[in-house]
Amino acid sequence: MQERTGSLATRTRSLATLGLVVWAIVACFARLGEAPVYILNEAREGVYVRAMLASGNFVLPPVANHVENGEIIPDKPPLFHWVSAASMFGRAIATGQSTSARALAGRFDEWSLRFPSALAGCLAVLALATLGRRLVGDRGAVLAAAALLASWQFIHQARFGRVDMALATCLTIALLLLGRAVLDGSSAAMLIGAAWLGLAVLAKGPLAIVLVLSFLAPYAAIRLYDGSWRRLLELPWVAGVLIVAAVAVPWYAAAFVQGGAALLRSQLLNENLHQFGGGNGRMALLYYVVPWLTDSLPWNLLALIGAWQAWRTRHPGAIFCSLWWLSFLVFFELAAYKRRAYLLPALPPASLLAGWLLDRWLPPGRVLVASVAKQLAPWRGRLLIAFGLALVAGALLPAAARSLKLLPYALGAADGAFLLTGLVVALVASLLLARAAMRRDAGLAVASLWGLLAAVFVGVVPTFETITALQASPKALIERIDAALPPGQPLTVRGVGDDPSLLLLLYASDPDRLTVIPERTPPPAEFPPGFYLFAEAEWQAVSGPASDGDHGRWRELLRDELRERAGPIPLVLAERLT
To answer: What's the CA angle centered on 549, arms 543 and 555, to 5 degrees?
Structure first.
């Protein structure tokens, strides 16, 4: 009987894990490439990947038209860019298209830009549900993966073309394996974890090692205090360090050969030491309070209770997770330069603590499933009809809205279907949550809350993000500029700024045609004939009253504005006549 019960529990956990992975794929990949890029941080990584594809330089491709940290080399190691470039190769091979450098760079799009983050997000969910079992138990790990999937910051970053998700996932897998190593004495887990730590270094630099050390120091101190430190010494630390070096050092060596001191200045000094010490800016001490409260609510609050319970019960796996979480939070709080995305590596340990706590609080799995099924059973047929109608009506909604001129943006049928279905699911989940609160049914409350958050984050929010992107992205503007330029004619960009010009470089049909003049470069004594894209302020200085005698030598071609989060930048495309 016990054997049958154990087998049933194993199958249930396997099905739950499979269901979470499937949902992770939907959450991370559905409509991944629909929203055009309008945020500079995302455009920057896209420009680096495109330069890598175009040049065939997969070590340190220079981007001559962009200055970052005073250099024209990428400001991050290349793991993210390698995966993005590999997705382009894979898609080209799968569809029988050309894999030449020019063809791949020309077809580079939003889907490939965001693919590494989406892939990393799915891997993080799978890692928590499987590797997390040794730390927080079988059901606790599944609940932790579910909590991670219902965290706003996680879903947002998994659909965003930046290196942060790649770093967070590699660190998560490395520390999950390290947890197994220190709790079970597993040398194999330690060495595999070291390889993942090396990949984390290739994702965002030495920060990965510093974060792991910020955790290992207090953890070793506790093991020294309770007298169990000798087991730590039995692990192959030297071999682990060598594996980290074997994974990360070859790229740094090759990059140093190409970039020399520029690599040290940009990636090591500016992106690490200056960021931490305040050389690149200093944020308020309480900067992280609001992001911490809002970006992973309510799992972060459960994690706080879980950390307290871990120390009360002396649960070794939960203590490991609490130190992992708190050490990361403390490190980022001490850093002078802060961004809300920097807290992303702290979400997995917080989810593990929340999952561990919920596992202790909630009724057995079969009781929990039965409770939810019982509440839905009388309404099952009507709910299926409602979901079906929402799916069909949502798919037709964008086209109907455009025909009635209610929606000037080209939303797809999938956006409408996800939006309307998500709203229906969110409504049903809200009603169930209210019923659970009245009946004090903790299991139903957690399931309803998860359904509500999942529906909002996957069905509703991405649609409005797509609308925002369509409003703000310069993609249509750059297509107009390309159409106005004669074939093969170069374009000089002045006054737009180093970072905003990234959006132009990302979407230009041929970035080699662009020459971006760095900020604060004074105008030349004489503009040679050709085509220029000016910011309005510089255009006024060039063609205004102070240069009336020269005004007749300019021909204005179009006016528009480059929209980005800092505010619109009015632009003028003009030709300098002979």
So the answer is: 45
Q: Which of 432, 465, 498 is the last residue of a domain?
A: 465
In a domain, 481, yes or no: yes
**d(Cα 292, Cα 288) in Å, to the nearest integer?**
6
Q: How far is 440 from 434, CA to CA, in rounded Å?
A: 10
pLDDT digits (tens, 9 = 90+) for 461-512: 999 899 889 888 888 899 899 889 988 889 999 988 878 888 889 998 888 8
Find all residues with CB under 8 Å of 427, minimum gap 6, and list them.
none
Specify whether the backbone of 440 is left (phi greater than 0), alpha (psi in -120 to 50) or beta. Answer: left
**Residue 22 sits in the same domain as residue 150:** yes
Q: Which of 435, 465, 495 is the last residue of a domain?
A: 465
Q: What residue numbers bound the domain in which 248 lies?
A: 2-361
Q: Which residue has the tokens 């074939």?
A: 487
Which of 66-79 are b and which e, b meaning 16 or more Cβ less than 10 Å from the residue's Cβ? bbbbebbbbbbbbb
pTM: 0.94
Residue-wise pLDDT for 321-360, tens only, equals 999 999 999 999 999 999 999 999 999 999 999 999 999 9
Residue 470 lies in a domain: no
Any domain includes 328: yes
Q: How many domains does the chain have?
A: 3
| Cβ–Cβ < 8 Å for 556, 574 | yes
